[in-house]
Batch of 2 targets.
Target 1
Amino acid sequence: MTIIQLFPSLFLNLFLLLLLRSSAAPTATATISQQFKEAPRYYNSPECPSTVNTPPLTVDPTVDPTVQVAMTLDAAYLRGSMAAVLSVLQHSSCPENIIFHFVTSSSSNASLLRATISNSFPYLNFHVYPFNDSLVSGLISTSIRAALDCPLNYARSYLANILPLHVSKVVYLDSDLVLVDDIATLAATPLGDSILAAPEYCNANFAFYFTPTFWSNPSLSATFSDRKPCYFNTGVMVMDLDTWRAGEYTTKIEEWMELQKRMRIYELGSLPPFLLVFAGKIAPVNHRWNQHGLGGDNYRGLCRDLHPGPVSLLHWSGKSKPWVRLDAERPCPLDALWAPYDLLKPPFSFDS
Ligand SMILES: *[C@@H]1O[C@H](CO)[C@@H](O)[C@H](O)[C@H]1NC(C)=O
Ligand SMILES: *[C@@H]1O[C@H](CO)[C@@H](O)[C@H](O)[C@H]1NC(C)=O
């Protein structure tokens, strides 16, 4: 009989004390109190195109056998990112053909994040890139939700610069989502002449995303005069990085952010500049690929239901996150769909 079996409540109290102490520490140390399980190894099915002997990335993208995925990685959302990666692999017919590109804040411990990914996914083909926070920190103006103001939230606007030039097309994914379908289907979305593809919502109130200052200034609102803009969520996008680079779209986004510093033209964080540059010009994706809003609204985080129709991707955008609500034992009903992808080790199974 061990001492833990004799005095379980003592150990529970000690553990809770440690937990309380660590929750008061800065988020950068959050990874130290989290340990993750190793995910199973996932294999290609026999029909998968080979990536061996084909110099991947140099061939025509329509026959490129690889799927390139970009995500951000930080201590605060690490648990979500791990679940997202697991979900991508688990539902892919050709998981060995997927290459992950993780962008981390220059202020976070990249080698620790890299080690955490390697430990849980020893067979994963991935790269980690630092994102220079100061590139964007001077351009961020405060929004209605502090989490939206984190510099890494803007990394999606810089992917064309951050990722190597041979990555010509990428699927960008937020860290608060899981896929329940094959990412290759999403990656194969025809882009036509568009730079990016995402599900569009033309029934949403587009005007809502910009201030009266914006709409009442004809020289600003004229930006939408030659197109029918519709809302889209920037948490799931297929991006043509070659066209992006050629058109210098990062600069176009930065120009709107500079303007926002001088006059308030929108309220949310990284989304409105994307809408300003791309709304009405994107290639459509079936709504099943971004069942968003499951985190609840930006103010109160109330539980939300799925939108009607099929589901390939569940996205907990909004104020709350499933792991937070599950830990608090106040989950929303749909959080049960995230839980199977959670790789966090239960606290008492920590390796010593
Ligand atoms: C980053 O993490 C590694 C591995 O856990 C550790 O050895 C190192 O001291 C950390 N570096 C910083 C700057 O905290
Ligand atoms: C980050 O960007 C700032 C501003 O552009 C620059 O001064 C700094 O040297 C950059 N840091 C690194 C590590 O590249």
Note: DSSP finds 13 helices and eleven strands in the chain.
Target 2
Amino acid sequence: MPFPKINLHIHSNYSDGKQSINHIVEKAIKLDLNYIAITDHFTNSWKAWVSTLNNYETISKYLEEISSYQRYLINNDKHLTLLKGIEVDLASSEQFIKDFIQLDKYDLVLFEYLQSYDTVAFLKNIINYWKKKITKLSDLPILGLAHFDPSYFVHGNLDTLMNFLKEYNIYFEFNSSYPSYYSPRYTSFFEKLEEYKIPVAIGCDSHRRSNLNDIEEPFEMIKYYNLEKNLEILLKTLKSKKLS
Ligand SMILES: [Zn+2]
């Protein structure tokens, strides 16, 4: 693969993953991955029955643990960059997200279940709120859409969606756990991603170590839809990102 190996969507045992952060990092080093992000679930909605990052104590423990591995990787010259992420369920209440997500603590925020224009408006609102709270735009974490399902938008006005992604610099994730989302019946959607130069990334939604490295298939899809330049945009952002 001519590109760095990235998996920006991994769950640990802080939510519904089976693996500890320690084990994820160890395995990622063995697999020669270049960028990984731990992105545990954050919700006060339907997923509340699984353990999630839903209180200050757990969140700060989680962040501190990832930070310690970030320091370890830097101090030991490992060729692996670890990002501090979180996966926000957009069915959570607005107040819950505003209260608990301290933006400056994260390198990456993924959003799951963007499935309607109402939710686009909801998300805009949240990001605008965050933007007001930071001093400079570069303090914003990288933002991405987790396992976005094109079927909800492909028959509507795609330009509205693309303009939103462009304006807020939100990337689209190719997720190895959801191959049906990359079906040729959504070609018009992927053409729009190319046209609007929307960044794309790879995430495996890894809940166990065995699929930490399932990046080949998403990468093939990126090539199939001529989106290598879009991946480069994301990689550039990753390289320039000062980890928080
Ligand atoms: Zn996930």
Note: The mean pLDDT is 95.
